[in-house]
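Record 1 of the preview.
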Amino acid sequence: MLSQAQIESFVQEGFVRIEDAFPKGVAEAGRRILWAHTGCDPDEPATWTRPVVRLGGYSDPPFVQAVNTPVLRDAFDKLVGSGRWLPRESLGTFPIRFPSPVDPGDAGWHVDASFGTETPDFMSWRANIHSKGRALLMLFLFSDVGDEDAPTRIRIGSHFDIARQLAPAGEDGLSLRELAANGFEESAGRREALATGRAGTVYLCHPFLVHAAQPHRGRQPRFIAQPPLHGAEEFRLHRPDGAYSPAERAIRYALGDLPSNPTKA
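->
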């Protein structure tokens, strides 16, 4: 279960890493299902001809089990608030990355949008200061991921920069095109972390965290899921009872609404 130190690290850095968040056997069962849909042979690297294969959402038992372990449900309560998130019965897109000298073409810094996704132009998808539609960004490691295995890159503390960028835009928020207009320059000087770990590790990230993919320089394909945790309500930044979740507190820190306003990490 999350400690208070881990919760405060989430507020300040924008993410928390939970080892053994779901069983290794569940990860293995999930990989078997995913391999069958890649069009590749796990024992024949010659069939790994693309740098990345994207698979859609899966609701098979291993994936439902992975996202509903007691440790994760407790973490959702502690980071977002009990009753403020919606249970998942599936896991979202799997970008499966293969060792390859070919540029995958999708390794730019970005944040994930949370509403307006009905349009096919994904650069018009939007995010707002209340993170409408998304309570967390999550990274589920279904394979061991080392430094060379295309781990997701994270800009530590960058959720503060995005909160400050979104605040003036109000309820309408900004599109991905608008957020990316300056190449996420505000967070360019921040330290980076790599989302590495054993299969069964989960990274729970603030929805405003700036992150990026990278080419795979290792030996074995990397399997992760990157679903959102949907919110039962939008973040509320003015609660009369002061019962702010850590995800909300992080935004209030960024906007100077709490005494300890973090500076650049």
